Amino acid sequence: MERELMTSINSTSRVEIEETKIKSFNKDSRTSRSFRVYDGEYAGIQFVQGKIDIGEGYKQAQGNLALKRPYKFALETVSRHRDKTERSYTDKELMEITREAVGYLKTHFPDYIFSGALYVTKKTLKMENTAGLDCSNTDCTLQADIAIKHKDSKDITDGWFSIGQRNFDFKKFTDMADNYLTNFTNMAELPEELIVQTQYYGYLSKLTECLEAENMALGTSLLSGKTGEKIFADSFTLAHDVSDKETWFTPFFDGEGVVQPNDRRIYIENGVLLSGYADKRTADKYGVPHTGSAGFNLTDIPNNGYTNLRIERSDKTVKQLLGGRLTIVPIVAAGGGFNDKGEYVTPVQTALLCDGERFIGRLPEFAIKGNMFDMFGKNFIGVGSDDPVFNDKQILVKMDYSK
Amino acid sequence: MYDFPKGLYADIRIERHANASYNVQNGEVMQNSETSTTGAIIRVYDGKMWYTSVTNDLDRIQSELDGLAAIAEPNDDICIDPMVKKFEVHKDKVLLFEGEKDVRNITRGQREKLVQGYISSCVDKSIPELKQWAAGYFHSHTLKEFRSSKGAEIVQDFQQCGVYVWFDFVVDGVTTSGGKNIMGMDFDLLAGHEREIIERRERYLDFAKNAVDVTPGDYVCVLSPAVTGMFTHESFGHKSEADFMLNDKTLQDEWVIGKKVGSDLVSICDSGDMPHRGYIAYDDEGTAPKETWLIKNGVLTGRLHDANSAAVLGEELTGNARAQDFGCTPMVRMTNTYMQPGDTAPDDIIGGVEDGIYVYNVNYGTGQGTFTMQPNCCYRIRNGKLAEPLRVNVVTGSVFQTLFDIDAVGSDLEFCDTSTCGKNGQSMPVSDAGPTIRVRRLTIN
To answer: N or C: which end of chain A has fewer CB within 10 A?
Structure first.
């Protein structure tokens, strides 16, 4: 009988801002554990949040073997620990940074009402077992999420900006605020050519669903039957990448303790589909490559779904990729998304016109449309080598206006 | 029981959650679990700001309270702080879900039998287009204890259970997903819905085979009761939450009580004490829920408050301060929000449309000035009758205009007890409700 323990330790200190004033200071600290016992055929699992005697946790897990949750796979044996913390923050420091941030916004942009929060999050995920697995991943960031409302606006909010850093650079925060707000009330016209510049994580939602190996095997993915085929642009390479420095809190191991070589796994290379993602159960059931993609299910056997998908960057900057063209940066684009056919449509409630680095003015409301195969195919311009506007990587993609 | 600090307002909310889940996907049991969590949030207010702490260790409540008090600034006038004065003081125990109705007594065998029964009767594996399916059960039970330095002592419970069957149909390489969720507060009510689930299965199979892409544009739209519920929530409900307008003169002027904001046919109410998914015995500041008419006959008549917004705006408490769980502080949230039914037969409403769109069901919505809904099943209306199924990506409208464009309100009020509302990172169970309505113009993409 093997034993395994997954421990998640999360702590947050948070200062909330309401109407450009500090409203509250909140602390939250929680430890969750998943006790697992394996008899070679079945797994017994017990989730506990809060205090528990370790022996009692395993005892309860052993009792749950009676549920006959199937698990026949060998346990992992890797030993590795990664701590990406660059700086720790005391609560006093967080409060001082927040006061400074609120003061800056109030002084420099008196025509706006700000709300949101600055918060320090520290997370550790540990996984260990009697077969030899001993892994842990720790990370800590200070994040500022600021919602913007002009005092004359009749809407609830007009937009927001957000910046997360391991070592909080106040200058980057003020640069971002300046960029978003300096020309926010300058009304601009929609450009004829619609190039969207944005953080791309939302655009990967449909692709993530399509790359799920069970969906691909059962024919419910738009990528079913396309393995080995060219599906996107030559310059489009997509990988599960937990080495990415702009990834917060993401463990280098999956929910079964599997570690990828170089912390990367490529699914689409130069536009060619290599494989979907699969945990051990999915790979075994459908005879597809195992990609170390088990989710962190603390309450039952692992489920397929751990991905940290990143599009490979171009060697050109955003400005170089644009070659003098302007972009549209959606700030609030809520309510749309991809449909079953892979078509993307969304209203854009707030957007800014941008030269790739600096915002020029605010645009009227509009709607955009595209198609997943075109967005990452003929209309894919690239992901810049630099991080203007968002302090994070961003995609440039041609889209069309909709009604 | 707790030693509340002097010169400060403080409250403590202890929650005990018990959840169970049983999910089957394509014949394989993917989840069969029971979990329980216990925790508390401790809050201290000194007249200037809140200090809060969350812990899983109930033995630490007093020390957390003392620690927060140590960093707050004691205030001799805390009792006359406008917000503190607003806090209600109730000593009550409202336990509706003890005994036979307690979902914690539902055995694993009962859950499995319920789900497997639906699989046997509703999942027809002979349908060639059916490529994936899922069915499952969940329940959650919450026991809450609230105590405040003003003397409130409240114990209340809440529970939900549900069952679902979901289908993925593939036609010409395109997957259409659809199914049915049945949720309620009583396990016994989850049985006997085979006919509704099979009707949904057949509807979405027909949709998969026959749906055509809509031509974007402005259309007359008829909304089903379920969609009207979400429309009510998104188009106006969020604007009735007073925490967005505390000292905002522009919004206070825009949403002044007595202003005409919609057609005479529109009346909208929020009430937390109805036996639906947004039910509360007391809100998370200890306030008893009220029936709050937000709009009556098109005129703005009320809004939703927590103690802070009620104090700032000089209005009465409504019992809408809600928190997702013990990890969260309360904020202004809807509970059970419904549009009052009219007296027009639903068929007559559709019959009055020469060319338009019937929105049958939606996935989710958003509630800015431009509100949105993402439908998963629509139909064209031609000459007063439902015609071919339509693939529509998103429905949008302006809250400042759309409520005026409602020109028919049906008699068929239905509650949708499967909704979850997101706001500032917190998810809350809510109920949306409404009848069939007709809107003269919505933008369709």
So the answer is: N
Per-residue pLDDT reduced to its tens digit, A195-220:
999 999 999 999 999 999 999 999 99
Closest residue on chain A to B48 (Cα): A23
Inter-CA distances, A91 with A31, A87, A94, A168, B286, Å: 20, 13, 5, 14, 29
Contact A24/B50, CB-based, under 8 Å?
yes
For residues A361-365, average pLDDT: 96
- Determine how β-strand B336-339 pairs with β-strand B268-271: antiparallel
- Using alpha carbons, select from A232, A228, A278, A224 the residue that is nearest to residue A255: A278
In residues, how long is chain B?
A: 445
Q: Residue A357 corresponds to which tokens in the numbers above?
A: 């680095």
A202 contact B CB<8A: no
Residue A155: pLDDT above 90?
A: no
User: Where do the domains of chain A lie, and which CATH numbers do they carry?
Assistant: 2-182 (3.30.2290.10), 184-403 (no CATH)
pLDDT of B386 above 90: yes
Using a CB-CB cut-off of 8 Å, the residues of chain B touching A30 are 39, 54, 56, 327
Which whole number is the average pLDDT over B105-127?
97
* Residue B167, domain extent: 9-210
> Which candidate from B35, B170, B372 shows the least CB-CB separation from A347?
B372
Q: Which helix (H) or strand (E) holds B210?
A: helix B194-210
Report the complex ipTM: 0.91
Judged by DSSP in three states, A134 sits in strand
Size of chain A, expressed as the number of residues it contains: 403
Interfacial A residues in 306-365 facing B (CB < 8 Å): 332, 334-337, 339-341, 343, 345-347, 349, 365
Q: Which residue has the tokens 């390479």?
A: A237
Residue B257 in tokens: 């009580």
Exposed/middle/buried for B426, CB within 10 Å: 0-12, 13-18, 19+?
Answer: middle
> Can you read off the two tokens belonging to residue B385?
């009758």
Q: Within 10 Å of residue A184's Cβ, how many Cβ atoms?
A: 21
User: A293: helix, coil or strand?
Assistant: coil
Task: Compare all CA atoms of chain A with the CA of B248 and give the residue at the minimum distance.
Answer: A151
In this structure, the answer to whether residues B93 and B229 fall within a common structural domain is: no
Do B179 and B32 fall into the same domain?
A: yes
Q: DSSP label at B287?
A: P
3-state secondary structure of B228: helix
Give the gap in angstroms from C-alpha B114 to the nearest C-alpha of chain A: 17
H/E run at residue A14: strand A2-18
Most A-contacting residue of B61, B209, B215, B244 (CB-CB within 10 A), to test interface? B244
In angstroms, the CA A250 to CA B347 distance is: 53
Whether residue B249 is found in the same domain as residue B384? yes
Q: Using CA atoms, how far apart are residues B393 and B391, in angstroms rounded to an integer? A: 7
Torsion sign over Cα A261, A267, A272, A276: positive
pTM for the whole thing? 0.94
Pairing of strands B355-367, B370-382: antiparallel
Query: A152 falls in which pLDDT band (50, 70, 90)?
Result: very high
Crossing angle of helices B194-210 and B108-122, in 10° steps, is 50
Do the beta carbons of residue A362 and residue A184 sit within 8 Å? yes
* Rounded distance between C-alpha atoms, residue A382 and residue B391, angstroms: 30
Only one residue has tokens 């370790």, namely: A54
In this structure, the answer to whether residues B350 and B389 fall within a common structural domain is: yes
Residue among A27, A113, A335 whose CB faces B366 most closely? A335
Q: Give yes or no: residues B140 and B166 share one domain.
A: yes
What values do phi and psi take at A275, rounded to 5? Answer: -170, 170
Question: Alpha-carbon distance A373 to B203, whole Å?
Answer: 29
